[in-house]
């Protein structure tokens, strides 16, 4: 279902970039003949919503379709679409437009932090400058301050049913389990290891805690290979225990570990449009002005 939202393109662009949601900025860069809008018209497109308009009609829906195909294929960067309003788009205007599609990936990674205690807060603070979308959970009421909830790319959630919370995580999320309750930690781990599309699973605690959890998981019938997916304790850099047990120091090692886990090959560098596409834009502009 597509939602046509009342939010303007510039307001939605700011919000989507702030919240790390994949989106496309579509800009009409040139036009010739009769067209619904003039160059400079913009709209923003996500997988389930559109903001503002390029004038409507078939060519706009073709633009939306092209943008969503690029999002689904993760073809980030700049792309140029050309529309003959009497040909490709079947509109009666008879004009011609070039639409520049700027495809933004949103967050580089999704990280779920279960627990808003001292270590959880330090992890959130240290992660703030990074392009990660954080999903922060805690079962205690009023644990999240208003100031924290204003942080970009941070969603604060009340943790009710651990299984439901796990089921709602986006695919390829990196999960960190560090609640104030061992029972909650166990329920979360039991749910996370059954999701094959979770990117990584980390559990805070001692070796004895993890040994106890492993025994419970095995007795509950969980597969041994799935249990091995859990890192515990988290933040153990190069298999060395950290003597500094302050929340900040622990969080620092956890975020460092996450940087390694989320380090994926960079997207192809985009310095602009391909020469042929840029040349076509210049030629179209000259034709329009002549």
Automatic annotation (TrEMBL):
Pfam families given in the database record: XdhC_C (PF13478), XdhC_CoxI (PF02625)
Superkingdom of origin: Bacteria
XdhC- CoxI domain location: 17-77
Ranges for domain XdhC Rossmann: 111-258
Protein name per Swiss-Prot or TrEMBL: Xanthine dehydrogenase accessory factor
Originating organism: Vreelandella subterranea
Lineage, highest ranks first: Bacteria, Pseudomonadati, Pseudomonadota, Gammaproteobacteria, Oceanospirillales
